[in-house]
Structures are given as structure tokens and as C-alpha cells.
């Protein structure tokens, strides 16, 4: 089968149905620039996707030193040849004419071009000055989930042992810190228990706040193929929007925002009440079951029905499916992680699996997902508010071990308190105790909550801001120094996806003249700062991606994320491999916890846990008495009402979120014409009943306001739950007249103008799902329709009179469902 | 009035006081977002404790003179002051002082809960024991929270002034 498919209009492409326990058939997707004949491609360069966390393996097509397209890799475990829309079209952004090609420094209030030496010396002299005058606590680093492992590791060493600051975190704080925290709470240590292959084997798949159709479209293709095959799984979907997942679910629950813990406690109540628990598993592998059972005893479906505004009978039906599943796979994402009581809720999903013994077997697993492509690397390298290698900052022997790896004194590495989380770093900058903030590969002036506050923090005269990025983002426009970076396809490094699959992502073409790989920038800084180890040798001993990877392997040795069995050559030959990969597991490890909970012992665990409601840290004595043998920890949590509730002035709940066609703040996806055209501008979603009560119609220009600010967009009336509004968070100002903020000519379009500064006490992940808001019409539609896509969760409730989202001929991509390839498409390079 | 009644009364005042202090600290540190939100949540626990203690005192026929509570005007003032000072480092010291105060208040309450639980066992007062068993763990969690925040914030605040 060979088809040409508009993958904007049909984002998930054609079906290749398969039966339960069978391997997922191969389908190779490819897209080449118009006019490029596959036979003229000179090199296919092995890479992996960058615009989501799925880790889709692909080859980049190169002609005369230019990228001309991409093709999925057929033999890879993650995607079996498939690519999502962002994979197919996103690469075009690399060649945008507005890439940064020269460093910029601020002179007399304006950013002006300069050479690299000038820019780096300005950073170095500010660093040295601050270290001398104010100490290491005056310098902070805010990185991303979009660089490579080698870059995060280098940054972690230079920040924690070179500068000696506790202030290093990633924007992964916004996407994945609750996943990490929930895993630490339940299993003592970070590390994804499940595997994507569990989709092949599960009979029930439960998706909690996880719109997988849009965030990991390739795994949704796998689910769709199973739904069309023999013995299909039944889906349970918890999502307040009528997503594509909800449309295909056996049970769809659309709870009121901020009530996940109440809903989950009721589900656990039903499962325990109906005795659908695995007592042998509980006895062998867990502690805390009795406390959970007593805690949820009063949490009946009827009790939760009032809180969540979901019929008790629906909760019962969901519990029936979860309780009777023979192999249960649960997946979790932002609907849980960015909502009120984030960690407490995510932990209840782990509890569901611990009490049902649904771990470590094909089809029985948990996927606490990530949003970004290399968020897992940010976490394991210690650039996400953790110590490298999932070491425990409260355990002196872990710190001593890290000091040994780095050849520094243990006291060089700050470990008197947990590494500072991003929201606290911005607070320290606001307060004036952080005086230099180095932001790499992220755009907080669009992505953080309460943007007027963030802009005012970043604009302070006393704060020296360095921004390292591809484009002059909203954040870069507020910087004192801007460093032009190379990106995916222009540099080499490894990426680890949400199911622990490590891929090598190779350089295919040169970066634009003037731009440098992030690794080279960090190494240059470290060399200029002349960071030394305790014997006076250089602290950082590596000089390129492969030597950085070898250094990281030594740091990972013996920890759960053990990379010692991997090499660049092995990744080139084998494709993706799941960590841990070492001498005893040379082919990697498909599932964690196949034989009990391996990393929860007090001596090895990454964390002694926290109070889920207050965030207070437990100490080793408490943890040892609770969990002396290192079992899975079943941790109960009480439902607390959200901090901001609707009232007369702000009668709606507001949630922000994503769309299939964009990633993060659109720095790349808006520069890929097919993706940009599919969702060209911000919109607002409201339910049929709310729109009709307010007399609003599709395409009306509306304003959503909260006590922090307001945003305008055209209305799309959808199947979202009544009382809830949705605004996508991707849109900022770089492509508007004003450039970085709303002004007289540019109405507010960034959803985060409205969001509240509040975060989960345990994971410190900011909350984007529970603001109270008002809605009003600014002007009538007058022939306009909403720019929202019709193919996704933003599909209109009434399909007539709204043109369907299509990509037309420019979006035609190839799908080849047999494994064989044309001879002229064979690998060359 | 028995020793138990005296302790109940002291603890009732202590929980009322802690609820007020947590609320005041939440308002005074409006720009320290985590402090603001969690202190507000934790005030709810102390309010509930105080309510349950008031019920118990009524059952014991003990008079309990009401305490002054803070006025709405004062709390608005505190929030506005917090916003005006949000860019300055000095309120960091005030925050540490406030957290220390909360911790000591919670510790005093914790010791009273300990005394009541012991006395309840000695006098076989199951109701009182149930009350102490239900509330005391939350008091300990209030202490752990203030201790954690002090541990996390003091390095930056004390070394940057």
C-alpha cells in the first residue's frame, strides 16, 4: 500500500489494524519538499523527533547540504515508521530567514550585533563580578526540555560544581515535574515504569488528562490501529474536553476543573469496595494500603459526583472497567500535572496500579508522560531541580558519590536544600537576590503564568538576562545578551523519550553561519570561567557530544538511568534502546518493576517523599520507618478545593492547553507553513449551552478575563464541559506588531496573560487548569470563523458552515504500509 | 475546671491563634505565592481543630471567652503592603521571622495535643483520644511545612542581604 495523504486534514493517516498481542505493523511516513524527487536525496541522516515527547525515529533527507524532508524509520520500536504532523512539516523551520546568526548585546537600551567573544566576555565578566560581590546564589540557570542529554549534563556540572549554585531548573518544571515527583513518591525514584509496547497488550487503556491524539499522535495511531483490530482495548478517558480520545472511549468522564483527587479517590473506593485488588501483590511489594483503604472509605461515587459534577453512575462504570481489566495501561499528562493537587492526583493513579498489581508485565503499566522531547534527559541529568543520576540531595553518600564522579569536594555541590525550582528562581529574581538568569531554549515570556509579572521581572535593570535561542523570541527581546543557537539536525546528541528510549540524533546539515550548538556555548563558557576540580584540573574534561556522553555514562553508572551499556555506535546500529542499559541488560530494559519495586530502598531512593498537600519534605528517619525494605509506597491524599473558584464576577473556569499542530510557543511550528495554516491564531472554546446563554456565536471575537489579565480570540463552540473555557497557550507576540507584549495595536493573545501564579506544593509545577474567568463579546463574527482546527478537540459542535481543516497539496505526505522500500530510497548516509 | 479542661481551653486558643496567624502570614506575604496558598490551606485545618475543640469544651460545660479576630481592613492593608514591597529583599527576613513564629505556635499546639492524648488514655476518654488522634497529625504536618520552608528559604535570604 502506498498512499499520498494530507496529514493536516488527516493527522493520524491511514489505518493498519492489528490484533491484541500482535506486533504493530510498519507504516513508513515521509514528506519531502515540493519538487524533490526521492532519488535525488544524497543522504538520509538518522535522527529523532523534537517537537513532542514521543521520540519518533526518523531520517532527515539532505540534498546539497540542505534539509529537504524526513522519513520515519521502519525498524524502530517507538514509531514503526510513522511520523506525526509536527515531525513531517516542522523541520522546515530550520531554514527560516529570521534565524539568529549573530550574538546580540544590549547597548543604550537596544540589542545590537556583536561577535561571539564580546558576548561571551560580557557574560563571563558579569558572572565573575556577581560571584565576588554576591556569591553563587546570585546566579540562576533556566533551561528546557528541548536540548540534548550532553548539553544538560554539561550545564548541570558547570552550574552545580562550577558556579556552585543551587539555582538550575528547566521549563520541564511546567511539563513533567509532576510525573517525576509522582514516580518518586510511589516508587522512591524517577523512571518510567511502563513501555509504549504496553499499548499492544492492554485490554483497558485509561487516559487521565492525557489528550494523546494531539500530544503523542503517533501512539494514538497505535491505539487507533488496535481499536480497528481483533480484541480491541476499551478506553477510559478523563478529560473535560470532547477530545478525539473521548470520542473513541467506552467511558468518558469530564470532571470540573481541579477535582481530580476527588474523582480518583472515588475510583479507588469502588475498586477496594468490590475487592478488585491483588492482595498478594500488595503484601509482597507495597506499604500503606490500609491507610489508603481507610482514607477512601467515605469517598463514594455519590460523594465525588457532587464535587466533580460527573454522574455517580459514570464513575461506577469507569471503576468497573479499571477494576476488571486483565492488563491495565494508564497514561497521565497535563490535565493532571497542571491542575490543582497535581502530585496527589498522579500518585493516586500509581496507587491504582499498585493495588491491582498492574505493573511490570506486558500491557500492565503506568506511563507518567512528558510533554517535551528531552524532558527525561533534563530530569536524569540534574537540570530539572534534581541531582544528576536521580541521586538524593538528602543522602550524603549520594552527594559524596557525585562529588567523586566530578572530582570535587562534596560541599562544592549545594545540597543543603532541594535544588531551586523555576517558580522560586523567578521569585528570587523579582526580589533581587538572583542577579543573573541564563535562559536556554525556552520562552518564559509566553510560557510562564501571569505574563505581566514575568515581563516585569525580566525587564528589571538589575537583572542580567542571557537568552540562548534560535530566534528573537519574546524573551530574547528582553535580554541583555542573546546567543544564537544551533538546533535539531544541525548538531549531534542523544534524546530520551517518555518511555526511556534513547536515540541518537545526528547532525545532518550545518547550522546557519554564526549560530553555535548549545553544547559548544556551555563548553566555551566553562573554559572562559576556568572551572577547576579539587586537584586543579579542568572540571569539564570533554569537548564534543560523544565525549560528553561518555562522561555522563560514568555519572549514570549504578543508578536507575544507567547508560553504561550504550555507545554512539550501538545507537547508530540498533536504533533506540531503553535504559537502564548496562552489562547485565545489554539490550536495554523494556519495563521497570518486573520483580518488585527496585529503587525504593532508603539507601538508594532518589527521594524520601513529601507531604502531598503541603510539600513538606520527609526525612530519612521517617522514610526508613515507613518503608524499611524499599517497597512501593501507597500514599493517600485528601481532596482540597481549588484555590480559585468561580464567583459572580468570574463565573467560568478557564483551562489552557495545546493543539496538535503547534509546539510550545510556536517558535518552530509557526514557521512551518502547513502547521501554521492549520491553527494560525489563538481562539477561545466554550460549550454550546454557555454560548447560547450569552448569545454568542462561532467566530465572535470574545475576551476572556481573570483578575490577572485578559486575552482575546475568536470563539469556537465545542463539546467542552459547560462552565469551562479553553484557550491554547502557544500564541505570543513575536509575529505581531508589538513583538513581545500586548500594546495599543496588539490585543492580548497569550493565554498566560490570565493564568494564576500558583503551583503544586510537592512537584512545584505551575497550575494552568483552574483559573476563574469571565467571558464577553468584543465584536460579532461578521463572517469570520474561529481559527481553531476542526480535526481535534477543538472540533465544532455543529459541523455545518465551518470549513474543515485541510492542508491541501502542500501537505501531501507519503504512507507506505509494506515494510519493503523502493531501491532508490535506500539509506546512503 | 479540670486539668484536661484547662488544656482544652489553652489548645482552643492556640488553634484559633494559629489559624489567624496563618491567615495573616498568607496576606502579609501575598507575593510569596507558595507561602500564600499553603498557609491559607493550613489555616483551614486549625479552624477545624478550633471548632472541634469548642464543641468538646461545650460538652464539658467549660466557658471559653472569645478571642479578638483580625479585621478585614487590616488584611487588605497587609496584602497591599506585600504588593508594594514585592520587589525588595528585606521582606525575606520578615518572612523567616513569620515562619519561625508559625512553627513555634504549631509546636505549642502539638505539645498540648500530646498532653490531651496522654490524659485521654489515662482517663479512658475515647472521644477525646479520637479527637487528638484526628487532629494532632495535622498539627505535626503544619510544623513540618514551616520547617521545610525555613530550610529552603533561609540560605538564599540570609546570604543575599
Automatic annotation (TrEMBL), chain A:
Organism: Streptomyces spinosisporus
Coiled coil: none
Gene3D superfamilies on file: 2.40.40.20, 3.40.50.740, Dimethylsulfoxide Reductase, domain 2
Recorded superkingdom: Bacteria
Matches recorded under Pfam families: Molybdopterin, Molydop_binding
Cofactor(s) required, per the database record: [4Fe-4S] cluster; Mo-bis(molybdopterin guanine dinucleotide)
Keywords, ordered alphabetically: 4Fe-4S, Iron, Iron-sulfur, Metal-binding, Molybdenum, Nitrate assimilation, Oxidoreductase
Annotated PROSITE patterns: 4FE4S_MOW_BIS_MGD, MOLYBDOPTERIN_PROK_2
Biased composition (Basic and acidic residues): 813-829
Chain ranges of the 4Fe-4S Mo/W bis-MGD-type domain: 42-98
Biased composition (Low complexity): 785-797
UniProt protein name: Molybdopterin-dependent oxidoreductase
Family as reported in the entry's similarity comment: Belongs to the prokaryotic molybdopterin-containing oxidoreductase family. NasA/NapA/NarB subfamily.
PANTHER family assigned: NADH-QUINONE OXIDOREDUCTASE SUBUNIT G (PTHR43105:SF10), RESPIRATORY NITRATE REDUCTASE (PTHR43105)
Annotated region (Disordered), positions in chain: 742-765, 778-829
Automatic annotation (TrEMBL), chain B:
Protein name from the UniProt record: Molybdopterin oxidoreductase
Domain of life according to the entry: Bacteria
Amino acid at each position: 500500500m502506498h498512499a499520498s495523504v494530507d496529514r493536516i486534514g488527516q493527522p493520524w493517516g491511514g489505518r493498519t489494524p492489528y490484533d491484541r498481542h500482535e506486533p504493530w505493523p510498519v507504516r513508513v511516513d515521509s514528506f519531502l519538499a515540493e519538487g524533490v524527487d526521492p532519488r535525488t536525496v544524497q543522504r538520509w541522516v538518522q535522527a529523532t523527533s523534537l517537537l513532542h515527547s514521543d521520540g519518533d525515529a526518523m531520517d532527515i533527507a539532505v540534498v546539497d547540504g540542505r534539509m529537504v524532508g524526513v522519513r520515519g524509520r521502519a525498524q524502530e520500536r517507538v514509531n514503526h515508521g510513522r511520523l506525526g504532523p509536527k515531525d513531517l512539516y516542522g523541520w522546515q523551520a530550520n531554514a527560516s530567514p529570521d534565524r539568529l546568526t549573530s550574538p546580540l548585546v544590549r547597548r543604550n537600551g537596544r540589542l545590537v550585533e556583536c561577535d561571539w567573544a564580546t558576548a561571551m566576555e560580557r557574560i563571563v565578566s558579569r558572572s565573575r563580578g556577581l560571584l565576588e560581590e554576591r556569591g553563587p546564589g546570585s546566579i540562576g540557570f533556566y533551561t528546557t526540555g528541548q536540548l540534548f542529554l550532553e548539553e544538560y549534563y554539561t550545564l548541570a556540572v558547570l552550574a552545580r560544581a562550577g558556579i556552585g549554585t543551587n539555582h538550575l531548573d528547566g521549563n520541564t518544571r511546567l511539563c513533567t515535574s509532576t510525573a517525576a515527583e509522582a514516580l518518586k513518591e510511589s516508587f522512591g525514584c524517577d523512571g518510567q515504569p511502563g513501555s509504549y509496547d504496553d499499548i499492544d497488550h492492554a485490554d483497558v487503556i485509561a487516559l487521565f488528562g492525557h489528550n494523546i491524539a494531539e500530544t503523542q499522535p503517533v501512539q494514538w495511531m497505535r491505539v487507533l490501529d488496535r481499536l480497528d483490530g481483533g480484541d480491541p482495548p476499551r478506553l477510559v478517558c478523563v478529560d473535560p474536553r470532547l477530545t478525539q480520545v473521548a470520542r473513541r472511549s467506552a467511558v468518558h468522564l469530564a470532571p470540573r476543573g481541579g477535582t481530580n483527587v476527588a474523582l480518583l479517590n472515588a475510583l479507588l473506593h469502588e475498586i477496594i469496595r468490590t475487592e478488585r485488588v491483588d492482595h498478594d501483590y500488595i503484601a509482597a511489594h507495597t506499604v500503606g494500603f490500609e491507610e489508603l483503604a481507610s482514607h477512601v472509605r467515605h469517598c463514594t461515587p455519590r460523594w465525588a459526583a457532587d464535587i466533580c459534577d460527573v454522574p455517580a453512575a459514570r464513575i461506577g462504570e469507569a471503576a468497573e472497567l479499571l477494576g476488571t481489566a486483565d492488563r491495565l495501561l494508564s497514561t497521565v499528562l497535563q490535565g493532571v500535572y497542571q491542575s490543582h493537587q497535581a502530585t496527589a492526583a498522579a500518585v493516586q493513579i500509581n496507587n491504582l496500579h499498585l493495588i491491582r498489581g498492574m505493573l511490570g508485565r506486558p500491557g500492565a503499566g503506568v506511563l507518567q508522560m512528558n510533554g517535551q522531547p528531552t524532558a527525561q534527559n533534563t530530569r536524569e541529568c540534574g537540570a530539572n531541580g534534581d541531582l544528576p543520576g536521580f541521586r538524593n540531595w538528602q543522602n550524603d553518600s549520594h552527594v559524596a558519590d557525585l562529588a567523586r564522579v566530578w572530582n570535587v569536594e562534596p560541599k562544592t555541590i549545594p545540597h543543603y536544600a532541594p535544588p531551586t525550582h523555576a517558580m522560586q528562581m523567578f521569585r528570587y529574581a523579582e526580589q533581587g537576590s538572583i542577579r543573573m538568569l541564563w535562559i536556554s531554549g525556552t520562552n518564559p515570556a509566553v510560557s510562564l503564568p501571569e505574563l505581566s509579572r514575568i515581563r516585569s521581572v525580566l525587564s528589571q535593570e538589575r537583572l542580567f538576562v542571557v537568552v540562548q535561542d534560535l530566534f528573537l523570541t519574546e524573551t530574547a527581546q528582553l535580554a541583555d545578551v542573546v546567543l544564537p543557537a544551533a538546533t535539531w539536525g544541525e548538531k549531534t546528541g542523544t534524546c530520551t523519550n517518555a518511555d526511556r528510549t534513547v536515540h541518537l540524533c545526528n547532525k545532518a546539515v550545518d547550522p546557519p553561519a554564526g549560530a553555535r550548538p548549545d553544547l559548544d556555548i556551555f563548553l566555551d563558557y566553562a573554559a572562559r570561567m576556568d572551572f577547576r576540580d579539587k586537584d586543579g584540573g579542568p572540571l569539564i574534561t570533554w569537548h564534543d557530544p560523544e565525549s560528553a556522553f561518555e562522561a555522563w555514562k560514568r555519572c549514570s553508572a549504578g543508578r536507575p538511568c544507567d547508560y553504561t551499556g550504550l555507545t554512539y555506535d550501538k545507537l547508530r546500529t540498533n536504533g533506540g534502546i531503553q535504559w537502564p542499559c548496562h552489562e547485565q541488560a545489554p539490550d536495554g530494559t523494556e519495563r521497570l518493576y518486573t520483580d518488585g519495586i527496585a529503587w525504593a530502598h532508603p539507601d538508594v531512593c532518589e527521594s524520601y517523599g513529601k507531604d502531598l498537600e503541603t510539600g513538606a519534605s520527609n526525612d530519612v528517619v521517617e522514610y526508613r520507618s515507613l518503608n524499611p525494605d524499599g517497597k512501593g509506597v501507597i500514599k493517600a491524599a485528601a481532596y482540597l478545593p481549588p484555590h480559585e473558584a468561580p464567583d459572580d464576577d468570574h463565573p467560568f473556569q478557564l483551562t489552557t492547553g495545546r493543539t496538535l499542530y503547534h509546539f510550545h510557543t510556536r517558535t518552530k511550528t509557526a514557521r512551518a507553513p502547513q502547521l501554521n495554516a492549520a491553527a494560525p491564531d489563538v481562539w477561545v472554546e466554550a460549550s454550546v449551552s454557555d454560548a447560547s446563554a450569552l448569545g454568542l456565536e462561532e467566530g465572535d471575537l470574545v475576551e476572556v478575563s481573570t483578575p490577572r489579565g485578559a486575552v482575546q480570540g475568536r470563539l469556537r463552540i465545542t463539546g467542552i464541559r459547560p462552565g469551562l473555557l479553553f484557550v491554547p497557550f502557544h500564541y505570543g507576540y513575536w509575529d505581531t506588531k508589538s513583538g513581545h507584549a500586548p500594546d495599543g495595536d496588539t490585543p492580548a493573545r497569550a493565554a498566560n496573560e490570565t493564568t494564576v501564579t500558583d503551583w503544586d506544593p510537592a512537584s512545584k509545577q505551575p497550575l494552568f487548569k483552574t483559573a476563574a474567568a469571565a467571558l464577553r463579546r468584543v465584536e460579532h463574527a461578521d463572517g469570520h470563523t474561529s481559527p481553531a482546527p476542526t480535526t481535534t478537540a477543538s472540533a465544532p459542535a455543529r459541523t455545518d458552515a465551518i470549513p474543515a481543516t485541510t492542508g491541501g497539496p502542500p501537505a501531501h505526505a507519503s504512507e507506505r504500509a509494506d515494510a519493503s522500500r523502493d531501491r532508490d530510497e535506500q539509506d546512503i548516509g | 475546671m479540670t486539668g484536661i479542661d484547662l488544656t482544652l481551653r489553652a489548645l482552643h486558643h492556640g488553634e484559633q491563634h494559629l489559624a489567624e496567624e496563618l491567615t495573616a502570614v498568607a496576606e502579609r506575604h501575598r507575593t510569596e505565592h507558595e507561602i500564600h496558598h499553603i498557609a491559607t490551606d493550613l489555616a483551614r485545618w486549625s479552624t477545624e481543630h478550633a471548632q472541634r475543640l469548642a464543641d468538646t469544651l461545650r460538652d464539658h460545660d467549660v466557658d471559653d471567652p472569645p478571642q479578638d479576630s483580625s479585621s478585614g481592613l487590616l488584611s487588605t492593608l497587609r496584602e497591599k503592603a506585600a504588593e508594594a514591597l514585592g520587589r525588595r529583599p528585606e521582606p525575606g527576613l520578615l518572612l523567616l521571622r513569620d515562619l519561625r513564629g508559625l512553627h513555634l505556635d504549631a509546636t505549642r499546639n502539638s505539645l498540648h495535643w500530646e498532653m490531651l492524648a496522654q490524659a485521654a488514655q489515662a482517663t479512658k476518654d475515647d472521644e477525646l483520644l479520637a479527637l487528638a488522634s484526628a487532629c494532632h497529625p495535622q498539627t505535626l504536618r503544619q510544623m513540618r511545612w514551616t520547617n521545610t520552608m525555613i530550610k529552603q528559604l533561609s540560605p538564599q535570604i540570609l546570604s543575599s542581604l
